[in-house]
Amino acid sequence: MANDRQASTRKRSKYRGPEPPARTSALRRRKERPPVGEAVAARVPVADLRLPPGGELTIQSSEDRTRVVAEADSEGLKQPFRPEAEPVMLTRRRLERAKIDRRAEGLRPFGATLRFLPELAKAARLAPPDDDKDRDLGGTIFGNDDRYLFFDRSFPWRTTGQIRTAAGRCSGTTIGPRLVLTASHCINWDGDGGAGWISFSPGYFDGDRPWGEIWATHVISWIQAPTSLTDQETARDYAVLVMEDRIGDVIGYPGYRAYDSNWNDGSYWQYIGYPGELASGERPAFQGDGVISSAQSQSGGGVVLGHFNEFTPGQSGGAAWGWWGREPWPRVVGVGSTIGSTAVQTPSNTTSGDNEYGGGDALSDLIGWARANFP
Questions:
Q1: Can you list the alpha helix ranges (DSSP code H) found in 221-280?
Q2: Predicted confidence band at 245 (pLDDT cuts at 50, 70, 90)?
Q3: Strand 198-202 and strand 160-165: pairing?
Q4: Which of 20, 50, 75, 157 could pair with 152 in a Cys bridge, judged by C-beta atoms 3.0 to 4.6 Å apart?
């Protein structure tokens, strides 16, 4: 009997376009799947420190606590060790030299429970009053806020986490054995083309880092996106981080595929990120029944995916994904990029004033190239 690490067999539907993912209503009826096999043991990075010359670490252990004590000089401990990530700019010429899969599977690791919807965090559901419509909370909320904060370390919710740079915090998702997907505009690009330090904490919740804080060694992207984006930049506003540790082998990762405009207006999509205005960005938020209203192609294979789902600062870099057939993992089609404004318009099928994901063939090519070159 094949296990969940292999692709599942899918039935053909009568739908003549590309097969759409499952709706949230169908996912709610699916029962969670218990763990298969034994969990992969993880060596979790706890801290990276710069010690003064001759400085030593002491480990103090008690029944339920372990403290790591470092010697400090008169100026205190040096700053934590933060390696700078090396930028790798993807070009069409580089892409043509590699064999790229634009539709690749994910990995549900052994020992992980599979849930199709995340469990609600205690006292965390958002329910704005009826007279609080069309709010603009530094991002865009159209109508009622349908997100909820969750606490869930099952698969695939454990694959999402917090991105940190010197410029602030964003969201990210594992997308390969040692790869993490986020938005290019989340990277702290400097004027000389550098990327600075970047870390990822999967499963981050209220300061807890169950799988540690992992540093990026490289950041792969099509563009070094600014914080204010044109449509052309939004269409390729994504980056893949290469991490020091193979965290994807431990917690798993989703698959991916390119978005197809035949799926416009279907309530198929889930989105996960760390909104700054909720719990100060300390807890992840989930939204199901997401609709992508428009797909606007740009040069280079990138696509602007316009939507009116909830999206506020801090959620940038999170994954928009759907579930196909009976596959035991979702597939990413977009990355949270641009915030619109409720002051411009109410939801319609245009891209004026909407929130936007970046997606398209360029997203699949970027992930595929990263998987091929940094396995």
A1: 231-234, 247-251
A2: very high
A3: antiparallel
A4: 157
Give 51-64 as a 3 state SS string: CCCCCCEEEEECCC
Span 113-123, pLDDT tens digits: 999 999 998 75
Task: Compare 88 and 100 and report the one with higher pLDDT.
Answer: 88
Domains of the chain in start order, with CATH, are 85-373 (2.40.10.10)
Span 367-375, average pLDDT: 95
Tokens at residue 280, please?
């100060």
Pairing of strands 86-89, 66-70: unpaired
Per DSSP, 73 falls in state B
Place of tokens 């759409």: 20
Question: Which three-class secondary structure state does DSSP give residue 187?
Answer: coil
Instruction: Report the alpha-carbon distance of residue 143 to residue 81 in Å, rounded.
Output: 44
pTM: 0.87
Judged by phi (left if over 0) then psi (alpha if -120 to 50, else beta), residue 76 lies in left
Helix or strand run (H / E) with residue 271: strand 267-273
H or E element that contains 174: strand 168-176
The token pair that represents 185 in the structure block: 């505009």
Instruction: Give the up-direction half-sphere exposure of residue 293: CA atoms within 13 A in the CB hemisphere.
Output: 15
